[in-house]
């Protein structure tokens, strides 16, 4: 027999969703069969798949021990590096300036030193994340940016915050602004570009089209030239839609690829510039809630910004030519 005491980060979930996270070794077929046969109960009573859990509930499972996690080995995120560039932190969330070159989540090449693992290590060392006391929740990222892009990434410390921020991002109630350096000077100096983006999942590359086509999604990209010098310009960009590689591909499609971007630009143009990553940073975030932000309403209207963007500082100092 196994018993779970439902904590604040578990509350509000359906029984099946909770158990999928709390017991990853349990096959879904056995999970549903156990609920049907009353081998899984909430507060001593029969429950349904759709039963919503409340804080303080006790879930009892009469299931073989082999399906319960028994790994008590070292926590893998403790092997991540310690460095985190914090833009803002409170009891509910972190805003972190991700450095270019750092993955947000693991992939086939990097399993350990990722942004989320650095965050988990940081919270664990502060005593704010206690994995042995959590049934189903792990602090999580609310948004992601490309490995070679820098800028603000939001991490939720608790489940209610993750739920609210995921809803706000989906409803486009967060305003994100980017800085980038492009080749040439776009004309006019400020405009909203419209196009259609088609993604090739096999190559992780996108194509920008000038007219609608099957499988292509509408994109809107607003830019403003802040400063031009020599063969480069510094731009502020606002995404009115959020698609894969949208800024990089859309600006390249009008003849102004990003400095350092060899996927949508040309290698020969970037030689000798000294920039290993594309010059793109998600530098500013404003919370613009048009509906209730619940316990996060205190953030509404607040703007957070990365104060030092390396390529922008170098450009203004005349070091990029």
Total DSSP helices: 7
Order of helices and strands: EHHEEEEEHEEHEEEEEHHEEH
Overall form:
elongated
The residue ranges in which pLDDT falls below 50 over 5 or more consecutive positions are: none
Helical residues, percent: 10-25%
What is the terminal separation in angstroms?
68 Å
- Indicate the radius of gyration in whole angstroms: 23 Å
Structural class: alpha+beta
Strand content: 25-35%
- Number of E strands: 15
Major sheet summary line: 11 strands, mixed
Q: Averaging pLDDT over every residue, what do you get?
A: 93
Summarize this, please?
The protein has 321 residues and is an alpha+beta fold. It has helices at residues 15-22, 28-36, 115-126, 159-170, 246-253, 267-270, 310-316; strands at residues 2-5, 40-42, 45-46, 58-61, 86-89, 93-98, 140-141, 150-156, 174-183, 190-200, 205-209, 217-229, 232-239, 280-287, 303-305. Strands 5, 6, 7, 8, 9, 10, 11, 12, 13, 14 and 15 form an eleven-stranded mixed sheet that branches. It has a four-stranded antiparallel sheet with strand order 1-4-2-3.
Give a structural overview.
This protein is α+β, with helices and mostly antiparallel strands and 321 residues long. Helix content is 19%, strand content 28%. The chain has helices at residues 15-22, 28-36, 115-126, 159-170, 246-253, 267-270, 310-316, and strands at residues 2-5, 40-42, 45-46, 58-61, 86-89, 93-98, 140-141, 150-156, 174-183, 190-200, 205-209, 217-229, 232-239, 280-287, 303-305. The strands form two sheets. Strands 5, 6, 7, 8, 9, 10, 11, 12, 13, 14 and 15 form an eleven-stranded mixed β-sheet that branches. Strand 10 (190-200) and strand 11 (205-209) form a beta hairpin. The longest helix has 12 residues, at 115-126. The radius of gyration is 23 Å and the shape is elongated.
